[in-house]
Amino acid sequence: MDFIRQYLLESKQILDQISTESIAAVVEVLAAAKQRGARLFVLGVGGGAAHASHAVNDFRKLTGMEAYAPTDNVAELTARTNDEGWETVFAAWLEISRLKDSDVLLVISVGGGSLSRNVSPNLVRALEYARQVGARIVGIVGRDGGYTAQVADACVIVPTVNPSNVTPHTESFQALVWHLLVSHPLLKSTATKWESMQTAPAAAPQREAL
Prior knowledge:
Mean pLDDT: 94
Number of strands: 5
CATH superfamily: Glucose-6-phosphate isomerase like protein, domain 1
Helix content: 40-55%
Strand content: 5-15%
Oligomer: single chain
CATH class: Alpha Beta
């Protein structure tokens, strides 16, 4: 019970400390992108890749934004890793996707990428390419934010309250933040299923034919 209470207490502390201003800045970038019909590319590795897939679904279905995640195409991802190396898989995918200066990259990562530590170098190379073409960059990251925080136009850093739980807390709050984003009035355009059912009149029961 002590671990359970401590873990939940840490979650409360993160919720109190997370920057609402940073979240608002990400909303602003995404809302402007939606208004100009820009595409959104969501990048992540490991748990971040799973988050990316879920987030792409939510951005497409709930906000009406054209969104993609390179990790959803496992054939291309593994082919590029096998033939060209892990470090360039995302940058090469973005190049083939014809990333433009009107587009946006959303990075979901615990560390944000670091070449010096050889952690998520593929994220770093993708961010370098995005800067080269002039695309906007936003992130939801942990720790010090890594390279993502250094180059992003707006970045949410999940506060570290216990270094022993950085990864689970960061990944938990990444889901909270992107669900906040797709629920924000400036971005959301389609009602979620259960919420729409609460306001819709109940269907009349069907009578069986005699």
